[in-house]
Specification:
By secondary structure, this protein is mostly beta strands. It has four helices and 19 strands.
Length: 253
C-alpha cells in the first residue's frame, strides 16, 4: 500500500494512493495526482547520512567515513511533491541528492542489527539539496549547506516495507529537465539499513514517522531557477521539484 498526506480544504488529510498515483480519500473520492496538494508524507525526526556512498565521497574528494556521518535537519527544510525549492541568491553551486528514505514504523530503542528491518514501516523518496559554497569539510555539513527552507523535498508517498522486496538493490536516478544526470544503486551503501537502525536507536529512541535519508551516489550537477528536478527510486516512487529564485520564494511568504 502507498500512503500519503495532502492539504485539502486547509486541513492535513491522510490518503492512500492508487495505481495511477492519484490520492484516494477515505470515502473513495479520487483526487488526480496533478491536482492534489501533496505534503511531506510524514513529519518525524529527520536523520541524514553524509558520504554514505563511496563513489559520492570520492566525487567530493573525501574518504568514506569509518562510522556513519549523521546530522539532523529541522522541519522547515521539508517540502512536498510537485512543489518548489528556492536557490539562494549569489551562490555558485547548488545540487540535488536523490536518496532512499526509510521511515520508522514503530518505537525502536537499542534494536539489534538482526531485528532492525522489523522497525522500518516503509520507504519514500528524498531529495536533499546542498549549497556547496559553504561546505568547508564534512564535519560541518548542515546549517548553511543543508538547512534552508524548502531544501528537502520528500514523497510523494510512503510505500509499505512489505512491498519493497530488497531495499538494498534499488536503482536511484535524477533528471534535470528530462535529462538523466545521476544513476546509482542502494547496493553500494556504505552503511546499510540494519546497521543504521541499530546505530541510531542506540543513541536515541526512534519513533513512527522518523525518516532516515540514506545518502546519495555520485553524479551531481548544478541546478538553476526554472529547472525541473525529478528524483526516482526504483519500486518506491518519483518525486518532482522545481527550482525558483530566492526573490520568487520571498514573494510566497
Amino acid at each position: 500500500m502507498k500512503r500519503a498526506r495532502i492539504l485539502l480544504n486547509g486541513e492535513i488529510t491522510s490518503v492512500t494512493v492508487n495505481d495511477n498515483l492519484d490520492a484516494v480519500l477515505q470515502d473513495g473520492t479520487v483526487i488526480a495526482q496533478t491536482e492534489a496538494d501533496w505534503l511531506p508524507p510524514c513529519d518525524g525526526k529527520i536523520f541524514v547520512l553524509g558520504l554514505n556512498y563511496a563513489d559520492h565521497a570520492a566525487e567530493l574528494a573525501f574518504k568514506a567515513p569509518e562510522e556513519p556521518l549523521v546530522f539532523l535537519k529541522a522541519p522547515n527544510t521539508l517540502q512536498g511533491h510537485n512543489k518548489t525549492t528556492y536557490r539562494p541568491d549569489g551562490v555558485d553551486y547548488m545540487h540535488y541528492e536523490c536518496e532512499l528514505v526509510a521511515v520508522i514504523g514503530k518505537i525502536a530503542k537499542n534494536v539489534s542489527r538482526e531485528d532492525a528491518m522489523d522497525y522500518i514501516g516503509g520507504y519514500t523518496v528524498g531529495n536533499d539539496y546542498a549549497i556547496r559554497d559553504y561546505l568547508e569539510n564534512y564535519y560541518r555539513p548542515n546549517l548553511r549547506v543543508k538547512s534552508r527552507d524548502t531544501c528537502t523535498p520528500v514523497g510523494p508517498y510512503i510505500v509499505d516495507a512489505a512491498d519493497v522486496a530488497d531495499p538494498h538493490n534499488l536503482t536511484l536516478r535524477t533528471f534535470i529537465n528530462g535529462e538523466l544526470k545521476q544513476e546509482g544503486s542502494t547496493s553500494d551503501l556504505v552503511f546499510d539499513l540494519p546497521f543504521l537502525v541499530e546505530y541510531l536507536s542506540a543513541i536515541m529512541t526512534l519513533e513512527p514517522g522518523d525518516m532516515i535519508f540514506t545518502g546519495t551516489p555520485e553524479g551531481l550537477a548544478d541546478v538553476k531557477p526554472g529547472d525541473e528536478i525529478v528524483t526516482e527510486v526504483e519500486g518506491v516512487g518519483r518525486l518532482v521539484n522545481t527550482i525558483i529564485s530566492e526573490r520568487d520564494y520571498l514573494k510566497t511568504l
